[in-house]
Amino acid sequence: MDTAGSIVAHDQAAAPVRRISSDAQAIALCQAGNKAAYGYLVEQYKERAYYSALGLVRSHEAALDLSQDAFVRAFRHIKRFDTTKKFFTWYYQILRNLCLNFIRDTKRHARSFSEVYDTQIMHLIDDKQDASAFAEQNELRRALWAAMDELKPKEREIIILKDIQDLAYKEIADILEIPIGTVMSRLFNARKALKAKIERIYL
After folding, report:
1. Which of 13, 130, 155, 202 has the highest Cβ tally under 10 A?
2. Domain 112-203 belongs to what architecture?
3. Architecture of the structural domain at 12-110
4. How would you class 105 by CB atoms within 10 Å of its CB: exposed for 0-12, middle for 13-18, buried for 19 or more?
């Protein structure tokens, strides 16, 4: 194909991508073989994916690598994606497995939340209503992240999904493959544990 033909072909492929306005539209294009359409999904979820990984592995570099690896793996299997589901719910399960494998296999010590919160996390939660009180004082913020460090992995994960990522109970249930009632009870217990740890550390 000559240069002019290549440009036309590229424009024809890119044109639908510029008009993408929903996950469903992007996924349909991807499943039809349009690789460029996947960029829409990456842009939509790359920040949420990074912070989800960071919450699990507590390492900036690992969170970047794992979230990107999960996007690559999701694209490879995009034709298997059930279009009745939400993309991020499906993607998170891939990401979560990678993170859990990383935690299991690595011998490196992840940085604590208290080390990374200022530069990596705080801008994400500063505008959250339930986190605004913690952001009023630097000491209290440090207590929050120190307390997050002490939580069990399942407790920390569900707080990140609900209180930081602001996902719906149904979406969390789908992601973790547990009943909504279990989500609610696990979240209640995790918040209770976090509150007790903050009070102990801060006071």
Report:
1. 155
2. Orthogonal Bundle (1.10)
3. Orthogonal Bundle (1.10)
4. exposed
**Contact predicate 37/17, CB 8 Å:** yes
Q: Along the chain (203 residues), what's the average pLDDT of each consecutive run of 10 residues?
A: 38 55 91 91 92 85 94 94 90 93 71 52 46 55 80 88 87 92 95 88 73
DSSP codes, 92-147:
HHHHHHHHHHHHHH--SPPPPHHHHIIIIIHHHHTT-HHHHTGGG-HHHHHHHHHH
Write out the residue limits of the CATH 1.10.10.10 domain(s) in the chain: 112-203
- Give the position of tokens 């829409």: 40
The verdict on pTM exceeding 0.85 is no
- CA separation (Å) from 61 to 57, 66, 68, 132? 10, 9, 11, 27
